[in-house]
Specification:
- This protein has helices spanning 9-13, 37-54, 116-128, 174-180; strands at 22-25, 28-31, 58-62, 68-70, 73-75, 81-85, 105-109, 133-138, 143-147, 154-157.
- It is of the alpha+beta class.
- It has one domain: Alpha-Beta Complex (tt1808, chain A).
- The protein has a six-stranded mixed beta sheet with strand order 3-6-7-8-9-10, sandwiched between helices.
- The protein is globular, with a radius of gyration of 16 Å.
């Protein structure tokens, strides 16, 4: 019987960086698939739109690994985007390393190889690990589903706004995201 040694957080963080991104899941370095065109366009659109809003509020990270706990084990997912406020992580604490604490917002874009169900489970894991909001974007249905720690998920479409007390001053519609990405 072949067994694979579980990586510790320190061992995972010390792995050589190359062109292959991996997430630490249940002690294993699991490769993350490279995004395709629609995924890449949505990531870029969100980065542009959110960066304008967050300029003096916090940091928008693209594929920035986050050190969290999942079911009592170290977990280092690499969300497509994240937002962390300077209140939560002051600018002087930013280093070139994995994000050391749970961000306010994680955004995942559903890729062709993923299902809404799988990413919904991951959204729940993010919330249980201390992330305050998770947005799941679906490029086919042009929707954003928002997951909350204390309420059922809500799916937003077209001119629905993504306003949230957690993200003060953000005025963004689902349509703006997909238009910026060139899908409308």
């Amino acid at each position: 019987m072949l067994t694979t040694k579980e990586l510790t957080l320190q061992e995972y963080l010390a792995l050589p960086q190359d062109d292959n991104y991996s997430e630490l899941i249940e002690g294993q370095a699991i490769p993350k698939m490279a995004p395709k065109r629609f995924h890449s366009r949505l990531t870029g659109a969100l980065y542009i739109l959110l960066s304008e809003w967050s300029e003096d509020k916090g940091e928008i990270g693209i594929e920035w690994a986050v050190i969290l706990k999942r079911k009592g084990q170290d977990w280092v997912p690499i969300p497509d985007l994240l937002y962390i406020s300077y209140e939560r992580l002051p600018l002087e604490r930013f280093e070139d390393e994995a994000c050391p604490i749970a961000p306010e917002l994680v955004i995942e874009i559903i890729s062709p190889s993923q299902s809404f169900g799988n990413l919904s489970e991951k959204a729940t894991d993010y919330l249980q690990a201390g992330v305050d909001r998770v947005w799941l974007l679906d490029s086919h249905s042009k929707t954003v589903t928002i997951f909350y720690p204390d309420a059922p998920p809500q799916t937003k479409r077209e001119n629905d706004t993504l306003q949230d007390n957690l993200l003060p001053g953000l005025e963004l519609t689902v349509q703006q995201i997909f238009k910026q990405a060139g899908f409308i």
